[in-house]
């Protein structure tokens, strides 16, 4: 995909870009990355809590046992949300803490302590008039369910449907936007191909595909369960959209790799949700075991009320002649663009293209229904060791400010081009536990000094607050 020509901006826009009235400015989080939920951590209730028992699995050998102590500090952190003038906030419900369940047996209620904690926080958000996006599966499973095969087993969607139903009953008045599953493809890839996340399996593409099928079933039944309790609920899932580009544009093999990655990573899930059928691209659909996974999934078709896109970067891809069996090729690391500290290229044009071209088909349901778009994650990582003390390190995060502004400019252009984007959630409010990268990879607008848990707003937080409050992206007048 080559970047598209973006609409020109006029003279007034040279000075400031005004976003549509009512645009939702917010931040996104997920429970395991911030909470340090006492019951989950002490009793190793989730697959992730268990996975991090072995610190060698985490790049900086940290764990999320404390994370941001959000469980203890969430009421204080509401003040940060208020200070930043946020109008939206994305949380995820801690499935393992709220509903452990048991094989073959469906729980009939949620854990009272966990409910109390979420109720308190959500009531705080309501007082601030902040709209709530809530995810039901953000990469962590009850540990027993993970050991039982996770999304490869039919028990998982069954349990998930009950979880969705109970959560919808309990929190129906507190949530504005429901997200069933977060980034199903990232989960499948990390869990079954890269092996960096639980269940830690490597190069098992068939299981990765099965887990995608399982997550599609999970999305369908959760969506149905939520709507059976709350018929007017707005429900979706998030898709991590990553543009792929060939390393060598004259090399047909690189183009093939790009086609395959794009069709699987970006399109497989949204296409299935739209049509109600899982269908693998050529040549994967020629493989018997993969073909068997194809076909209609009950209650899946059009089970989506808005499009939720997570966008961070693009990926240059190449076919490796030395490993010809790997038809997905590999990531090429030669880039002329600025990268964040995790090596992710800063590529705002990709966001424009995703919105205007690549995801356009999913902005309409099969029945012609119009689906608005929300950016449910976008952010910049810098790396600073977890045990750094208070100094002023990392508060002047100009690269994060630049990243934010460039992506908002691209977003504005997409809106000008006619795309109905209604909100932008920056990932993330606080530095947090970045999965296999640990605590050192930091995305926060607000810095956390982990040894003391001190919170301090970075330059990017002030910048974001200015934008959120004014609903405008202002450019400094050129000198003279
Ligand atoms: C996304 C995840 C989120 C966070 C960001 C950096 O893929 O949804 O949990 O790790 O990346």
Account of the protein in words:
It is built from 16 helices and 19 strands. The protein is α/β, with parallel strands linked by helices and 480 residues long. The chain has a single domain, classed as Glycosidases (TIM Barrel, Alpha-Beta Barrel). The strands form 6 sheets. The chain has an 8-stranded parallel β-barrel, surrounded by 7 helices. The chain has a 3-stranded mixed sheet with strand order 7-11-12, with helices on one face. The protein has a two-stranded antiparallel sheet with strand order 1-19. A hairpin with a 4-residue loop joins strand 17 (446-449) and strand 18 (454-457). The chain is globular, with a radius of gyration of 21 Å. The mean pLDDT is 95. Bound molecules: beta-D-fucopyranose.
Summarize the structure.
This protein is an alpha/beta fold and 480 residues long. It has helices spanning 11-15, 31-34, 38-42, 47-51, 70-83, 95-98, 112-127, 143-147, 155-171, 184-192, 205-229, 252-275, 288-291, 348-358, 398-416, 459-470, and strands at 16-18, 24-28, 88-92, 131-137, 177-182, 234-241, 244-246, 277-278, 295-296, 307-311, 315-318, 330-331, 373-377, 382-383, 421-427, 441-442, 446-449, 454-457, 472-474.
Broad structural category: alpha/beta
What does the largest sheet look like? 8 strands, parallel, barrel
Strand-residue proportion? 15-25%
Largest beta sheet: what is the strand line-up? 2-3-4-5-6-10-13-15
Q: List the ions, cofactors and other small molecules found in this model.
A: beta-D-fucopyranose
**Which architecture name does CATH use?**
Alpha-Beta Barrel
Low-confidence stretches: none
Mean pLDDT over the full residue set: 95
Task: Give the overall shape, derived from the CA principal axes.
Answer: globular
CATH fold type: TIM Barrel
């Amino acid at each position: 995909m080559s970047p598209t020509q973006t609409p020109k901006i006029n003279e007034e826009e040279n000075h400031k870009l005004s976003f549509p009235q009512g645009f939702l400015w917010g931040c996104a989080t997920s429970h395991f990355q911030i909470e340090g939920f006492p019951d989950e951590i002490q009793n190793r209730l989730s697959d992730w809590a268990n996975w991090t028992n072995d610190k060698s699995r985490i790049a900086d050998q940290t764990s999320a046992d404390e994370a941001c102590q959000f469980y203890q500090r969430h009421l204080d952190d509401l003040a940060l949300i208020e200070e930043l003038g946020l109008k939206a906030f994305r949380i995820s419900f801690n499935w393992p803490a709220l509903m452990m369940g048991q094989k073959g047996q469906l729980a009939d209620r949620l854990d009272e302590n966990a409910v109390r904690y979420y109720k308190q926080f959500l009531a705080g958000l309501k007082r601030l008039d902040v709209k709530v996006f809530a995810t039901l599966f953000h990469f962590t499973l009850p540990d027993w369910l993970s050991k039982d095969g996770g999304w490869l087993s039919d028990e998982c969607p069954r349990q998930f449907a009950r979880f969705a139903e109970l959560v919808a009953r309990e929190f129906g008045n507190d949530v504005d936007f429901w997200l069933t599953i977060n980034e199903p493809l990232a989960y499948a890839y990390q869990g079954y191909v890269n092996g960096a996340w639980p269940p830690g399996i490597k190069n098992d593409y068939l299981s990765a595909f099965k887990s995608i099928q399982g997550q599609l079933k999970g999305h369908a039944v959760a969506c149905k369960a939520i709507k059976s309790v709350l018929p007017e609920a707005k429900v979706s899932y998030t898709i991590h959209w990553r543009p792929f580009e060939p390393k060598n544009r004259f090399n047909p093999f690189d183009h093939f790799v790009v086609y395959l990655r794009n069709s699987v990573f970006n399109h497989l899930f949204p296409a299935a949700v739209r049509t109600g059928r899982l269908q693998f691209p050529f040549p994967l659909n020629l493989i018997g075991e993969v073909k068997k996974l194809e076909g209609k999934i009950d209650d899946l078709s059009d089970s989506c009320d808005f499009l939720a896109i997570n966008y961070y970067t693009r990926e240059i891809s190449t076919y490796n002649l030395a490993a010809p069996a790997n038809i997905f090729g590999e990531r090429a690391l030669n880039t002329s663009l600025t990268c964040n500290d995790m090596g992710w290229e800063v590529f705002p044009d990709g966001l424009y293209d995703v919105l205007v071209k690549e995801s356009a088909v999913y902005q309409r349901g099969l029945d012609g229904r119009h689906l608005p778009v929300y950016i449910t994650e976008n952010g910049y990582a810098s790396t600073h060791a977890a045990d750094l003390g208070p100094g002023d390190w990392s508060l002047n995060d100009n690269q994060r400010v630049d990243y934010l502004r460039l992506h908002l400019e691209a977003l504005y252009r997409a809106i000008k081009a006619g795309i109905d984007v209604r909100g932008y959630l920056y990932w993330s409010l606080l530095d947090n536990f970045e999965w296999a990268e640990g605590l050192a990879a930091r995305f926060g607008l607000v810095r956390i000094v982990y040894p003391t848990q001190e919170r301090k707003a970075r330059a990017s937080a002030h910048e974001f607050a200015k934008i959120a409050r004014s609903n405008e992206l202002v450019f400094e007048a050129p000198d003279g």
